[in-house]
């Protein structure tokens, strides 16, 4: 019988007007990687905030190493050896790695003066444990996101943590960086550290997790052995329904439709090299490739967010000059960035304002006065059409889930009536049920006669929704695949062609 490190029993938590958790349970063994799964709003974050002392439960109990304990603050949790690495990294960029790791627990001479040499030496030992080969006195501002992730892990280990919670740790990482992270998780597991792993990436859950606890609508559903439970069953437990990932047959006559966009010999330094392709009305064109392959850079050039060194863009057969996003929108092109909060939304504004902001000139009365009734009606129409879940049109966008925020961006461009929609990682950071809705939404858009470019690192989704797949490698188009016959192996072979040729 394996030793239980953490046990949470009958945990309930309510906020004004919301029952966030109701009689939830979680049991984590020593030295296991335990997945905590559920859609956005299922209660995962609330449960972990209770475990780490940010919130206090209204009912229930927590046992640590078999003994009931009270966790009333983050300091209480750390004293027990419980730490959390949040999805939004919490490092101070103007301090060194060593200073970040030991902030609040500085090593001192005689308890008074900072011992910088000892701090650096201890930090170097921790960096070695997480396989990060960077000097401890390097400024955090000089690190990549992946390196900062490793520093967060080193910081967690420095607390002598026995339980480490990782929230979407691979979201900003490349494939090679993910491999490094998994190796570190394996070493921590061998040393008896328990990992609570939160992720929407089901392939990761299958690969590294031992067991999974599933929450839905704030309630405990089940705990399953990952190896012996199919992904379909895990997903069905999360969303309360079966989700089919089978590619849906679509009318191939759309492929003969008129060309709506053509790009010829687009270049931008070493990031985009001689990229040419066409897009037809009613088509979903997928862009696959590894991180840094040039997919986002190509999209930004088409949208005018960056200027190319050379190349031509044609809309409806006519050459157009796009020097800014304003020019692109006038030409009927919209771009939904992978960083929707930074580039797609104004999170402190309402649902209505975010939907209508790109179409204000068309929503005005005489003399430039905004027609508030028309704005309201249009926002209402598109939130209903896209099935946006929001308390009201006046709700702030920051209060919505990731999937609903993505729908707000889509609504904005549908109202603006653009013909070409470029989706950059449209399902990143959203839960499995919302991913399914976004995929269906993309298919619905082309059924309406729109043309869609989908950039995604999720090969399964690329295969599911796209008609053709362009695979990029080091700024170039490495090949084109028919989505009906393409396999993930075909995509990866093109995406990493130079590496494979070198072997």
UniProtKB/TrEMBL annotation:
It is a peripheral membrane protein. It comes from the Bacteria. The keyword Kinase does not apply. CDD domains: ABC_Carb_Monos_I, ABC_Carb_Monos_II. PROSITE patterns: ABC_TRANSPORTER_1, ABC_TRANSPORTER_2. Keywords: ATP-binding, Cell membrane, Membrane, Nucleotide-binding, Repeat, Sugar transport, Translocase, Transport. This is ATP-binding cassette domain-containing protein.
């Amino acid at each position: 019988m394996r030793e239980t490190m953490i046990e949470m029993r009958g945990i309930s938590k309510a906020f004004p007007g919301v029952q966030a958790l109701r009689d939830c349970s979680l049991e984590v063994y020593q030295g296991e990687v335990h997945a905590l799964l559920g859609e956005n709003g299922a209660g995962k974050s609330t449960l972990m905030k209770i475990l780490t002392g940010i919130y206090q439960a209204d009912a229930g109990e927590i046992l640590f190493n078999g003994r009931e304990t009270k966790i009333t603050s983050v300091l209480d949790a750390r004293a027990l050896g419980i730490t959390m690495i949040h999805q939004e990294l919490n490092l101070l960029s103007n301090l060194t790695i060593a200073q970040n790791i030991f902030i609040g627990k500085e090593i001192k001479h005689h308890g008074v003066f900072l011992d910088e040499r000892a701090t650096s030496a201890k930090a170097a030992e921790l960096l070695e444990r997480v396989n990060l080969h960077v000097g401890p006195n390097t400024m955090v501002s000089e690190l990549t996101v992946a390196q900062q992730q490793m520093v967060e892990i080193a910081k967690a280990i420095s607390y002598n943590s026995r339980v480490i919670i990782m929230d979407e740790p691979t979201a900003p990482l490349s494939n090679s960086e993910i491999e490094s992270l998994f190796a570190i998780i394996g070493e921590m597991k061998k040393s008896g550290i328990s990992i609570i792993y939160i992720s929407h990436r089901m392939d990761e859950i299958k690969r590294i997790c031992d067991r999974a606890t599933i929450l839905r609508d704030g309630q405990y559903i089940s705990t399953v052995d990952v190896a012996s439970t199919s992904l379909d069953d895990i997903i069905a437990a999360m969303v309360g329904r079966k989700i089919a990932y089978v590619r849906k047959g679509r009318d191939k006559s759309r492929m003969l439709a008129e060309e709506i966009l053509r790009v010829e010999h687009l270049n931008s330094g070493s990031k985009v090299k001689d990229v040419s392709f066409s897009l037809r009305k009613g088509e979903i064109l997928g862009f696959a490739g590894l991180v840094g392959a040039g997919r986002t850079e190509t999209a930004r050039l088409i949208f005018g967010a960056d200027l190319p060194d050379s190349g031509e863009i044609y809309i409806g057969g006519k050459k157009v000059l796009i020097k800014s996003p304003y020019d692109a929108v006038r030409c009927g092109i919209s771009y939904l960035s992978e960083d929707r909060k930074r580039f797609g939304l104004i999170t402190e504004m309402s649902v209505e304002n975010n939907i209508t902001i790109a179409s204000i000139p068309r929503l005005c009365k005489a003399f430039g006065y905004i027609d508030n009734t028309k704005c309201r009606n249009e926002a209402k129409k598109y939130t209903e059409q896209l099935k946006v879940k929001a308390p009201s049109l006046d709700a702030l966008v920051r209060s919505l889930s990731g999937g609903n925020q993505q729908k707000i961006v889509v609504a904005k461009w549908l109202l603006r009536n653009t013909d070409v929609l470029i989706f950059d990682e449209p399902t990143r950071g959203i839960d499995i049920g919302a991913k399914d809705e976004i995929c269906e939404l993309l298919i619905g858009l082309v059924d309406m006669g729109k043309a869609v470019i989908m950039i995604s690192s999720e090969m399964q989704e690329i295969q599911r929704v796209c008609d053709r797949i362009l695979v990029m490698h080091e700024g170039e188009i490495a090949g084109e695949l028919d989505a009906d016959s393409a396999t993930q192996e075909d995509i990866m072979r093109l995406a990493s062609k130079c590496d494979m040729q070198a072997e």
